[in-house]
Design a protein that fits this description.
With about 120 residues, the chain is of the alpha+beta class. The chain contains two helices and six strands, in the order αββββββα. The chain folds into two domains: about 30 residues; about 90 residues, Immunoglobulin-like (Sandwich), CATH 2.60.40. About 30% of the residues lie in helices and about 35% in strands. The protein starts with a helix and ends in a 6-residue tail after the last helix. The strands form two sheets. Strands 3-1-6 form a three-stranded mixed sheet. A three-stranded antiparallel sheet has the order 2-4-5.
């Protein structure tokens, strides 16, 4: 059997751990912002990756099992900053858009011009 003092110490430790866990999660959420990505192009986007423009790895597909149809929008949560964005369309064509400004929690629109620029059809 545990003494009353040991029970209080264990209970206090568990409560402290739970409190710190909650405050850590709240702090992490305070750092992120939600950005709305709008597909203003005429091309379906099947995959969307974002990475801080100082990183060399893309991470996971932000769309998951969804696709971004023309005219639709999708919310992405990231820590505010400058990001490179990789888009993969329905044909598997990749488009890397460097230095997208995701600092203020606003909207970023994918246009036909962005996609044509990536495929070398348009100079910006």
């Amino acid at each position: 059997m545990l003494s009353t003092t040991k029970r209080f110490l264990i209970a206090g430790t568990l409560m402290l751990g739970a409190t710190l866990g909650i405050s850590t999660n709240a702090t992490a959420q305070d750092w992120t912002r939600t950005f709305t990505v709008v597909n203003g192009s005429h091309i379906r986007i099947d995959h969307l990756y974002v990475t801080p423009n100082t990183y060399s790895r893309w991470g996971y597909d932000r769309l998951g099992r969804y696709v971004l149809q023309p005219g639709y929008r999708y919310d992405v949560s990231v820590v505010p900053g400058w990001y490179d964005v990789k888009l993969v369309d329905k044909d598997g064509d990749e488009c890397i858009v460097p230095s997208v400004d995701f600092r203020r929690g606003e909207t970023w629109t994918i246009t036909d011009g962005i996609l044509l620029y990536c495929e070398g059809f348009l100079g910006m």
